[in-house]
Every structure is written in C-alpha cells, then in structure tokens.
Design a protein that fits this description.
Layout (H helix, E strand, L loop, with lengths): L2 H24 L6 H26 L1
Keywords: Membrane, Transmembrane, Transmembrane helix
Organism: Brevibacillus aydinogluensis
Protein name: Competence protein
Length: 59
C-alpha cells in the first residue's frame, strides 16, 4: 500500500478513533471495536514508516 494511505490511516486511528475509544471507556462503555482496529493496524503503520525512512536514508 502507498505511504499516503498509511499516513491517513494513522491520523484517523490515533487522532480520532483512539481518543473516542478512551472517552467511551471512561464513560463506562465496553471496549470499543475501534480500539481493536488500532491494535491490529499499528504494526503495519509502523512498518510502513520504517520503510519510508530506510528509502529516504538510502537516497
């Protein structure tokens, strides 16, 4: 997948979904499914960022 996709996914996950999930947990709701999505996508976002840094340093 392209780096742009992972950048947008990271912003949505960490800027929107994670704070909302934490808010719902504080309000007493069960663990939101968005939190599971964050846990699943984090390694892919991290790997994509590391690949981009490697490519940038190789140039």
């Amino acid at each position: 997948m392209s780096q742009r996709f992972w950048n947008i996914a990271g912003v949505i996950m960490y800027g929107v979904m994670l704070p909302l999930s934490c808010l719902f947990i504080v309000l007493g709701e069960p663990i939101p499914f968005a939190l599971f999505a964050i846990w699943i996508t984090f390694p892919f976002i991290e790997q994509s960022a590391m690949e981009q840094l490697r490519r940038k340093n190789a140039q």
